[in-house]
Design brief:
4-stranded antiparallel β-sheet; about 25% strand; 6-stranded mixed β-sheet; about 260 residues; alpha/beta; 2 domains; Rossmann fold; binds adenosine-5'-triphosphate; 9 helices
């Protein structure tokens, strides 16, 4: 489903601040896999998602989606293949459009674009039904501006938008990090439910070791632009947060003191 091979990415090449972010990264993700991605600050997690979505083009290496080489395709040409939810609830939805217009945009994503999303009664009913499942009362607020919603509500709608798209790939970049713990938990559970129901192939970046093991089917650790740990199946089921922390510390060669990593 998603295959990346030998990805190399350098920022500010040839300058004193040259930063070799991806260093020959290989990863092969099968259909319906839900991969949680961890790694220290600057390990290249967001850059990897950006290279898969086309927001960044790698210097060398390949990105293959559904057996198609998309390595050189810009983001807008991959829009029908990949859905994203970002850390900042303000990104990914348009605050000056209504809830139903945002949903219609997602519904039409990857198809021929219209200036204003086409809405009809059939679509409105579909959106109402989908919003009802969120249990946030948003089904009665279809014509409210997106900007009126709380962070958690926006992330929930963003997730819903990703299931309306034709794409079967979902990229989550610390999408609960800006939410309070209770809302984060709600959005995480919603994520797991939607991924399962819509059979999405998912990559979720998180700084929480606990989340990395609790959610998904496979955990990958990045360090200095490479995969340094890749666990799934029984091995992953047996793994505790302490095991993962130990591996993380061993890779980094230093002790972790960050509470988010330890307790999050
Ligand atoms: N557009 C850019 N221009 C220059 N440097 C960048 C750019 N984007 C990211 N970087 C740098 O590349 C490195 C990797 O960034 P990236 O965001 O991929 O790391 P990350 O693993 O997601 O880290 P974090 O957990 O802190 O979000 C960092 O040193 C970052 O400062």
């Amino acid at each position: 489903m998603i295959k990346v091979e030998e990805l190399q990415l350098t920022f500010n090449a040839g300058t004193p601040i040259e930063n070799h972010v991806l260093r020959g990264l290989d990863l092969n993700i099968k259909e319906s896999e839900f991969v949680t991605i961890i790694g220290s600050n600057g390990a290249g997690k967001s850059s990897l998602l950006n290279v898969i979505s086309g927001d960044l083009i790698a210097d060398t290496g390949y990105v293959i989606i559904n057996d198609k080489d998309v390595s050189r395709l810009p983001a807008w040409k991959r829009a029908g293949m990949v859905a994203r939810v970002f850390q900042d609830p303000m990104i990914g939805t348009c605050e000056n459009l209504t809830i139903e217009e945002n949903l219609a945009l997602a519904y039409n994503r990857g198809q021929k674009q219209r200036l204003k999303p086409a809405l009809n009664n059939h679509l409105r009913q579909l959106f109402k039904d989908k919003l009802t499942v969120l249990n946030l009362g948003l089904e009665n607020r279809l014509s409210d501006m997106m900007g009126l919603l709380s962070g958690g509500q926006r992330q929930a709608v963003s997730l819903l938008m990703s299931t309306l798209q034709s794409s079967k790939i979902l990229l989550l970049d610390e999408h609960t990090a800006a939410l309070d713990p209770k809302t984060a938990q709600f959005v995480l559970e919603l994520t797991a439910k939607m991924v399962e129901e819509s059979k999405l192939t998912t990559m979720m970046v998180t700084h929480s070791m606990k989340q990395a093991l609790e959610y998904g089917t496979r955990t990958v650790m990045l360090h200095q632009g490479k995969v340094v740990l890749d666990v799934s199946g029984e091995e992953r089921k047996r793994m505790t947060v302490t095991d993962l922390l130990n591996m993380f510390e061993k890779t980094r060669g230093e002790e972790i003191t960050d509470d988010v990593l330890l307790l999050g």
